[in-house]
Design a protein that fits this description.
The complex is a heterodimer of chains A (210) and B (451). Chain A is an all-beta fold and 210 residues long. Helices cover 0% and strands 51% of the residues of chain A. Chain B has helices at 215-222, 246-270, 402-431, 438-445, and strands at residues 17-20, 27-30, 38-40, 46-49, 57-60, 77-80, 83-97, 100-111, 115-122, 125-131, 137-138, 149-152, 155-174, 183-191, 194-201, 204-213, 274-284, 294-295, 299-301, 306-313, 319-329, 335-349, 352-358, 360-368, 371-381, 387-396.
Chain lengths: 210, 451
């Protein structure tokens, strides 16, 4: 695997991309948000200090999903009125990227969907049903969330967000969907809930006394 | 992974946070590494914002009594389904049904890797509860009707109760914004030993799945001193003491009954039913002075030891005769003594015609070995009978049906007892629900007419 190396345009520290398709990363030293434009890195923002972590997952945690191994390369942290959650950007060993979300001990793995004609946020209400990829999804929660910060590599440009609406959709199986209204064009993620033990996670954060 | 994570060089491990209550200064420990939204001071019962470094006061509540105490103290760790959990929060909730307040307790359990799950306790009945990840399907149009049900992971859950749950008392940490006095509509569907609950607060519905646990299991898991409180009554999702399905028991019973019938038919077909003796005698009172006994001709019983049936027929009509028999083996002198009465009475009274007894009698003697036999017969009769003919028939190897009846009853009895136990248990369970069994609902049903 190619691991492009560059230097932080802000502090000069070495920047290593673990995932060749990463579009954006955060300098580990000066916390500058860097966007890759061709072969150059451009500073587009700065990450404020993140709140103390309650998640056992961290950058470089490794795990398995089905028969694929993955490594955590980045994350977006959100907060809402009942707590916070992480969307961990994971790189699969087949080169694809996925998202491992971790909301207070509830783990789910999802992939970006190319589905078009997604509903506008104002048109969505709880109980509404959608069918994507032959699966029926029911809107269970509409969460007004707040972007809190970033870490590591992301597959798209994402910074300086404020309020972001998420729509969670559930099914009668472990499958779920999320509509992300971060950008003017909604994004759809399809995935499923996973058991912590099934992820066989390694390189986790330790907790004092546990 | 429950044992913890490999050692890491890097940022220090998160630690349980020790803080002080901004209201009364008492020590407060945050055990959930930042996952709690609210924390309640154990001394002054201020509900504090756990996300705020200075623990802003969100609500204060008065408690009328100080003896609301968690049975599992906060901070206690135990192993539940293979994972270590620490008790971080406790709340008492209540609901009012027909003017009676019912209280239950909920415990928040935390593991930094697995997140939270809950324990509930009501009158000594416990449930291990977690939030549903998959969506149950429920036909809300029929909610509250007796047949309402919800499907979850391929199983059907019956609607049990919908009630309004009030939060009365809180202690410790909660992963949500907890407030005393908050009301939620709670709907329970049961499939013992599991209970599927929906909790509706404002617009948001949360589904959870609980599994019944016995107090002793909780005591063992958390290594608590003493003994758990004795459970009272039958709880909504308590597993029935009748562990096998009653239907299955009846199916097994029916199969056995068919087997018995088959056995009966088989033995009936195999039985020789061989007539070995037939004779008609005449009883004459005048002749039978003192000893009136006589012996019959010898007849032979062949084959294996088997049954012998002795039939007595007499055309009695409002009389009786009584015959003392002895079946005697000529070779061994082994004897079977038995007396048989033949009596038949009939007539009319104010209730119409009646009758009692009949003109035939039969008796079966079991396990008579083969050999040469004769009968010794000694008849007696009603004093009003001057004389009467009577016929004696002996049949060798007749089928016996009595033992099948006994086997049938012996098996029927436990089946009936088990069914009755299952029935009374389910009756007690459902009498506490929104759909009480027939008699109880017809009692309360009377009030519907008044509306």
């Amino acid at each position: 695997m190619t691991q492009p190396v560059a230097n932080c345009p802000n502090c000069g520290a070495k920047i290593v991309f673990r995932w060749s398709s990463s579009v954006q990363t955060v300098c580990e030293f000066c916390k500058s948000i860097l966007v890759r434009i061709d072969l150059d890195l451009k500073k587009v923002g700065q990450v404020a200090d993140l709140p103390p972590d309650s998640s056992p997952i961290q950058i470089n945690s490794e795990g398995r999903y089905g028969n694929k191994a993955f490594v955590v390369v980045g994350r977006i942290l959100y907060e809402y009125d009942q707590g916070g959650w992480n969307e961990w950007h994971v790189m699969m060993n087949d080169g694809t990227s996925a998202w491992l979300s971790d909301a207070q001990g509830e783990y789910a793995l999802s992939l970006s969907s190319k589905t078009q004609n997604l509903p506008a946020v104002a048109q969505v209400h709880i109980g509404q049903q959608f069918t994507w990829s032959n699966q029926r999804y029911t809107v269970s929660v509409i969460t007004p969330a707040h972007y809190r910060g970033l870490e590591g590599e992301l597959p798209f440009q994402y910074w300086d967000k404020t309020d972001v609406t998420f729509v969670d959709l559930r099914t009668e199986s472990a499958k779920f969907a999320t509509l992300d209204y971060s950008d003017p064009e909604p994004a759809l993620y399809l995935g499923e809930f996973v058991e912590f033990d099934d992820l066989k996670l390694k390189n986790l954060r330790g907790f004092e006394g546990w | 992974m429950s044992a913890g994570a490999p050692p890491l060089s890097g940022p220090p491990k998160p630690q349980a946070k020790a803080l002080n209550c901004p209201k009364c200064g008492a020590a407060i420990v945050l055990r959930s590494f930042g996952q709690a939204e609210t924390v309640v001071c154990g001394s002054c019962h201020s509900i504090l914002d756990a996300k705020d470094p200075s623990l802003a006061i969100l609500q204060q509540f008065e408690i009328k009594t100080s003896d609301i105490r968690p049975l599992i103290p906060l901070g206690t760790r135990g192993k539940l389904r293979g994972t270590d959990y620490e008790v971080i929060g406790f709340q008492r909730r209540s609901t009012k049904v027909d003017g009676i307040t019912y209280c239950w307790h909920e415990y928040v359990l935390f593991n930094p890797y697995k997140g939270v799950r809950y324990l509930s306790e009501y009158n000594g009945h416990w449930n291990d509860i977690s939030i549903c990840k998959t969506l149950p399907s429920v036909d809300s149009a029929f909610l509250n009707s007796p047949g309402a049900s919800a499907d979850y992971l391929g199983e059907s859950y019956k609607h049990f109760q919908t009630s309004d749950a009030n939060t009365d008392f809180v202690l410790g940490e909660f992963p949500w914004q907890v407030r005393v006095g908050e009301h939620a509509a709670v709907t329970d569907f049961v499939h013992p030993p599991r209970v599927l609950s929906s909790e509706k607060l404002d617009k948001e519905v949360t589904w959870s799945i609980g599994e019944y646990m016995y107090g002793q299991e909780i005591w063992d898991a958390f290594k608590l001193p003493g003994t758990p409180p004795e459970p009272m009554g039958v709880y909504e999702n308590q597993p029935s003491p009748v562990t096998t399905s009653v239907t299955r028991i009846w199916v097994a019973f029916a199969a056995f009954a068919v087997f018995l019938l088959g056995l009966m038919a088989g033995f009936n077909m195999r039985a020789k039913k061989e007539p070995v003796f037939h004779e008609t005698y005449h009883y004459n009172r005048a002749e039978s002075k003192g000893e009136a006994s006589f012996v019959t001709d010898v007849f032979e019983l062949t084959g294996h030891p088997s049954t012998v049936e002795v039939k007595t027929h007499a055309p009695v009509d409002n009389h009786w005769i009584y015959v003392n028999y002895a079946l005697i083996n000529q070779d061994t002198e082994q004897a079977w003594d038995f007396g048989r009465e033949v009596s038949y009475y009939h007539g009319y009274d104010s209730d119409g015609s009646w009758s009692e007894g009949q003109q035939n009698d039969a008796v079966v003697i079991a396990s008579v070995p083969p050999g040469h036999y004769y009968l010794r017969i000694e008849p007696e009769a009603d004093a009003s009978l001057p004389g009467i003919p009577y016929t004696v028939d002996v049949t060798h190897d007749v089928p016996v049906f009595g033992i099948y009846g006994i086997a049938f009853l012996a098996l029927l009895m436990p089946v009936v007892i088990i069914s009755f136990r299952a029935y009374t248990f389910e009756r007690s369970r459902w009498s506490e629900s929104d759909h009480p069994p027939m008699q109880l609902s017809s009692m309360s049903g009377g009030s519907e007419d008044d509306e």
